[in-house]
Hints:
The protein is globular and about 80 Å long. The chain starts with a helix and ends in a 5-residue tail after the last helix. A 7-stranded mixed sheet has the order 3-2-1-4-5-7-6, sandwiched between helices. β8 (321-327) and β9 (333-339) form a beta hairpin. α4 (82-106) packs antiparallel against α5 (114-144), α8 (207-213) packs parallel to α9 and α10 packs across α14 (389-395). It is 51% helix and 12% strand. The protein has 480 residues and is α/β, with parallel strands linked by helices.
Amino acid sequence: xxxxxxLILANLLKGFDLLVFVGSFMTAAAMVAWPxxxxxxxxxxxxxxxxxxxxxxxxxxxxWSLVFKGFDIYSSKRLATRDSEVLDVLKAVxxxxxxxxxxxxxxxxxxxxxxxxxxxWSASAAATVASRLxxxxxxxxxxxxxxxxxxxVIVGTNRRAVAFARKIEGEPELGYRIIGxxxxxxxxxxxxxxxxxxxxxxxxxxxxxxxxxxxxxxxAIFLPLKSLYQQGSLVVSQCEEQGIIVxxxxxxxxLKVAHATTEELQSDPVITFATGAMEGWPIVAKRFLDLLxxxxxxxVLAPLLALVAATIKITSPGPVFFAQxxxxxxxxRFRMYKxxxxxxxxxxxxxxxxxxxxxxxxVFKIRNDPRITPLGKFLRKTSIDELPQLFNVLRGDISxxxxxxxxxxxxxxxxxxxxxxRFSVRPGITCLWQISGRSNISFDRWMELDMEYIDRWSLxxxxxxxxxxxxxxxxxxxxx
Length: 480
């Protein structure tokens, strides 16, 4: 499950938990605190709610949410045991119920009594635990069927590494797919590894190249750190550069960007290092903004899109859309769509024009590219050619704001791994590069702006970039 989907699920759970709170509160009131037996249903719904009561109830809901957040209820529980997850939920419900009761006593709320608190706790605990168990069961079934998988590489071929691999393969509901093992040196592999049948996909020297060319979500390190600390530290740094999650047995590394969190693999502690800056409820708001804005823009711009498509078809032979394979989150490949601005065989002719490349780094840019059609030049100048990417936003391939998705050809020209950290987040239509001059800035500065975006990310930064993109597009600065 990608970070975006995981956070969407977490926020859906938050909303569900608030509904459980409301239902449990009403259930408890109906069971133990109904003071007017002769009141009819019609009269009950005709009652007016006092403003102070509404404010107080909203305050209770806020307290409930804060307590659940404090117990880390909404983080990924993929590696946690069923019992530990249920225990965490019961702890949160118990503390939340106790706080509600104490606040009721403090503010002299007659409704909140000990019987009320017990009824409330029972209802909320039953509903919350049931929801978590149901969600866990559904996710496990998806993983067993090959969905929602995490691709993992294991560094080290000792007994612990093989035991870890067998453990996660023996529990397919965890959703891990072992790509292979990495090791190096002249020392003999453990007998457990030789007998396991697991593939050795790279040595230490080949690992950076393997990570560049393979979809890898996580790297688990099981090196003997006492004798291979330097090598282990280098592997973690290489993963950090490319934005790949690292899991290791508890040990400390000095990392520049990645932050560490402690998780469990079926009660065994592991430390996770991740560089992703996008987490929490803002990423759900980001995805919601993507869906809302892209849908609205496609509806509003539909006549323009149809007009441009017809004009392209009339003015030059070839398809209306240009589809190219690009690299997305953690180098996952997808087809990105733009209005065609070049002749139909433009990609085939690129090899003949490589000597005219005016851009630094691995990207290819020619200011007066002979393959561009007259209409295409206008579409590029106004960035209208980018509009079909709104369909990619709807699909979830890209976001409205994020590092620009690069063609496979450009990626293969990367010569510094720190550039690859840009793939640790979902790419986008616009970013700091677009509002800073686009083709007029160097490739290294472009990559620095992408790193700055990742490290500074907030929903507010996305909004500012979107606002600044409009005048940048109207000026046409750096468009090519």
